[in-house]
């Protein structure tokens, strides 16, 4: 009788051990299978990583990311502090309105004379605030024009983050921006321009080189070289000095056809 009880107890322990091994086996299998899903989900969150680097990887010391942003949300809030500033919005929509439209119109007229922009172009202005550049395009005949900014200003400006434009691939013939210095991720800023430009489309940027931009800027550019390198799918059309509301250089690219 004791032998039978002993044998039964041994079988019970063996069965418990086998059950534990089976459970452990399935645990490691499920963990292994879930790892790719975890990595995939992690890759979908590029805009919310903590910012610790002070220099972008493609530029050396010629394009520096400003420190001080603990998260992407922190960066966005700082940009909104400028965009929603009631005093600035009052200036943008009154005293600066016609003055800026006049200057933007002159820039865009020159691009039309160089056949880089036409009345048939579908145009986007990036970081357009209250849309003076959009209004300028419309006044010179480029009627299919719109702007994006974190804060919309209908009907000229719709809501959008220039690190993740809310448009399909190849939507626009022409894109313009004078807020490159506000990009926390310059590579993403440029990649979104090239994504939403059609093949053969033109991008014109007004930037400040070799001098510090305003306090809300997220990067400082010390040469045109890193900017040219960022446009991996485009060719440089021209680079020239300008006087554009504190910005001193116009850089124009054309997206390659292939």
From TrEMBL:
Keywords: Membrane, Transmembrane, Transmembrane helix. The chain crosses the membrane at residues 20-42. InterPro entries: Methyltransf_11, SAM-dependent_MTases_sf. The keyword Membrane applies. Residues 124-204 form the Methyltransferase type domain. The keyword Transmembrane applies. It holds the Pfam family Methyltransf_11. It comes from the Eukaryota. GO terms for molecular function: S-adenosylmethionine-dependent methyltransferase activity. PANTHER family: F21J9.14. This is Methyltransferase type 11 domain-containing protein. The lineage of its organism: Eukaryota, Viridiplantae, Streptophyta, Embryophyta, Tracheophyta.
